[in-house]
Design a protein that fits this description.
Keywords: Hydrolase, Metal-binding, tRNA processing, Zinc. This protein has 148 residues and is of the alpha/beta class. The chain contains five helices and five strands; from the N terminus they run αββααβαββα. The longest helix has 18 residues, at 127-144. The radius of gyration is 14 Å and the shape is globular.
């Protein structure tokens, strides 16, 4: 999760919502990502999507079997679907998102047994650090009266 937090800090440094993700296979990071929606002008440029694309490229295929994703904030429905569809085995979440999360807060896509692949979810890993990263970012935005 420390590596995912490093990615989140990269996002914050360019004015993006500080969410970071890394994908690990056999104790090696094979994919990294941080939010880039504003910079890329792309609504799909979420940390998780970027990490999935990089991991798929590095493995030479879309099936990320045997992989774990660490993400600082609970994934949205788009990212939760991509995690499930890419066959990631484990999802480790830093802090939950009660307003937009799709891994246990509002709905739970990765662990829904109606799908053909189940991703095991672990929640609240380095929760305070992940939560504080988000709180600090939005506190600074309000202080500087910027909208994102």
């Amino acid at each position: 999760m420390e590596e995912a937090l490093k990615e989140a800090r990269k996002a914050a440094s360019i004015g993006e919502v500080p969410i970071g993700a890394v994908i690990v296979k056999d104790n090696e990071i094979i994919g990294r990502g941080y939010n880039r929606r504003e910079i890329d002008k792309d609504p799909t440029a979420h940390a998780e999507m970027i990490a999935i694309k990089e991991a798929s490229k590095n493995l030479g295929g879309w099936r990320l079997i045997g992989c774990s994703m660490y993400v600082t904030v609970e994934p949205c429905p788009m990212c939760a679907g991509a995690i499930m569809l890419s066959r990631i085995d484990n999802l480790i979440i830093g802090t939950m998102d009660p307003k937009g999360g799709a891994c246990g807060s509002i709905i739970n896509i990765p662990e829904d047994e109606r799908y053909n692949h189940i991703t095991k979810v672990t929640r609240d890993v380095l929760k305070e650090e992940c939560s504080n990263t988000m709180k600090e970012f939005f506190r600074n935005l309000r202080k500087n009266k910027k909208k994102i």
